[in-house]
Amino acid sequence: MKKVTFYLMMMVLSLGVIPTQVFAAEKNPTSISNTPKEVPAEVKVMLNRLEEIKAMDKSSLNSAERKELRKEVRTIKADLKSSGNGVYLSIGAIIIIVLLLILLL
């Protein structure tokens, strides 16, 4: 008897997923990709500084100056990585994901 209710529940859940897949395929993905993302001014300044460092003639620099440039490049790259490229989940989303995992597994 438990197997019948389990199979019935799985069938109902799988039928509930099919319409969302159909609607997701109908949307036009080109309209989303046409909107350019605005880059903050701080990020533009850091990117411009990286371009300046790349364009420099480093053959005339001594080892201490090269070391300073390498440190500067590393710090700029670390700042750019931490400037908001992460994925944030709310507590409600985490609870829903955990519940779905428990139900499906």
From TrEMBL:
Signal peptide feature range: 1-24
Regions that span the bilayer: 87-104
Keywords: Membrane, Signal, Transmembrane, Transmembrane helix
Keyword Signal: yes
Top-level taxon: Bacteria
The protein, known as: Seryl-tRNA synthetase
Organism of derivation: Flavobacterium weaverense
